[in-house]
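Assemble and predict.
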Amino acid sequence: MTTWTKTLALAMLGLVVIASCQAAAPGGGNKPAQLTIAAVQGNEDAALKAVAPLYEQKTGIKIQVVEFPYDQLYEKLVTTFKANAATYDLVMMDDPWMPKFGTDESLQPLDSSYGFKRDSDIPDVVYDVGTWPPPRGAVPPAAKGKPQHLIGITIVGNVEMFMYRSDMGPAPKTWDEVKANADKNKKSNFYGYVIRGKATNPIVADFLPILWSFGGDVFDQNWNVTIDNAASLRAVKFLVQDLKAAAPTGSESIDAADRDRLMATGQAYQTTVWPGEITDVIENAQVSQVKGKVSYIPMPAGPSGKGIGMMGNWLLGIPKASPNGQAAADFITWLTSSETQKTYVDKGGIPARKSILNDATLNQKNPYFAALAKSLDAVPNWRPRTDQWNAVETILGTNLNAALAGTVTPEAAVTKAADQIKTQMKNAGY
Amino acid sequence: MLVPVLGTIFLIVTYPFVLAIIQSLQATNGGAFVGLQNYVIGLENPLLYEALAATGIYAALVMPTEILLGLGLALLVHRTVKSPALRAVFFAMAIVPLVIPPIAVGVIARLIYAPGYGALNHILMLTGVIHDEINWLGQPITAMPAVASVDVWQWTPFVYLVLFSGFLTVPHEEIEAAQVDGASGWSQFWHIELIYLRPLLVLIIFFRLADVLRVFDHVFILTGGGPGNTTQLLSLYLYRVEFKFSDTGQAAALAVVVLVAVSVLYSLVTRVLPLERR
């Protein structure tokens, strides 16, 4: 071996050693030039993108937001976590995904690793939804006894609410009043109620608040399936029979964009709504004919006496493989601070801070803030905290959609859904 | 010399297939060897057969329609349009649907079929054809044809382009000889031109069959597989097994089964419609 070859070999070995040390550095204390965030494309990440340049101005760290449509983001995260790839320093996650990522231990604990503590200005439920194992309700068998950690921080404080044409009638207090208002206001080319009934996720998201308000549920506290009990069946019938009678033809294929269009063009009286739909469409003067004519309230009460909203928070978490953990944690702290949240809200962001939601000036600009604050105070439900939720939602959403289309009876739909969910859960070790 | 070629084929084709077989024999959680258990679970699930039936109906709707329409268009343009400039215009128009991303096609189709504001119902009502909205996407009997129509719109131009190029390869001498012998237009097509088009028809069936098995975007946007499971095609079902049910083992097993079944189907197609002219 010549001297030149030996020198080259030693230099390469040195490079390999240096590179190995870099990759092995735990927590990544060094200041990176850039943080890469995997985000969902749409109104949920619009404010994040808008404020990101401010962080670069402040710290010199560039924030690269890589966007994916909803389903693709989930697929991307699942495959990235499975490969333990250090592709992203931060990831945006819908709250029903947390059990899957919590069970798979795909994320770094924010409390024990980076010192995150609860802030009294943010409702406990918002922290609870980012904690794994869940601090209340049914806990999956595999997660029982494991220490709880905060693995995600909410950056979009979504809670599903209710909207109605306040220029045409009073706010409904109960689902019975919703039905009565739907029947009263229904006329040619004007629908009394809009059902978001497209198969799988959409119809389940629309139905769960009704189910809970009627005293039903998908599971009890021990993961026994209860979607076929009397209260749950009553809720299904209310959706697919009572509300459908005042809903547009083709509710079976209506998704959020369709219901927004129907409301915004003045063709519908009332429906459920997510905050993002309000800012994007209903209160957007460029596309809405009903701006100022619609009011927002927490979910009406059902026979159970309660109106229960549903959480749909979007959280930021740090993947286990991220080499820039500390810098990523610093970004989360900055983004969720009171000061940044004011700018964030100004750019269309949906906050979870009480001080922001109850700010009188901000309430004038964002007419849904009061309803969102009340919904959070009332402690909304989250979707069952199981890593099997995607499967359960697909089963339930397919059968509900069939019942809504009238191809099966509500009784047959809940029986079939219950049987399939039981099999799914049993196979998963529940 | 063959090493780079074989290496590329191994990386692109063989390696993923072997990986799929290995995954199909492993438990989803933990990766323990489970033999044929994933195959048994996958093949016992009635939803698989519902998805296969839906895919069969979809294929039966789109493939003959696209082939007949594409063939008819190609024949019409070949026989009636002689101007090269006009032919170039038809060529450019046919390219357009093929280059639009399927997701965009789905969004456009949604504006046509959507309940409440869909353009099709609006036009039909304006012209007095119907008085009440048709629930295109919410009834099993109309949902599948509605979903299939999107495929027909996007892929008929592909059939047209391939077959039109086929018509151009037919020797003039044979056509002229047939005309001298008094053969009708239909006889010329049936006895001469169709013989030359046969290998291309096999090619089209190959491509379209592969595409039908991959159809996803516009179905997902239009119906999400509904109503119920009516439009849950095989690709959508496999996607749900992998990403919604998180059952990697079963998804891999089903992928292997589909691959083997398609290989058998392709060999049958080549036997029925041989690639060489006879």
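DSSP finds 18 helices and eleven strands in chain A.
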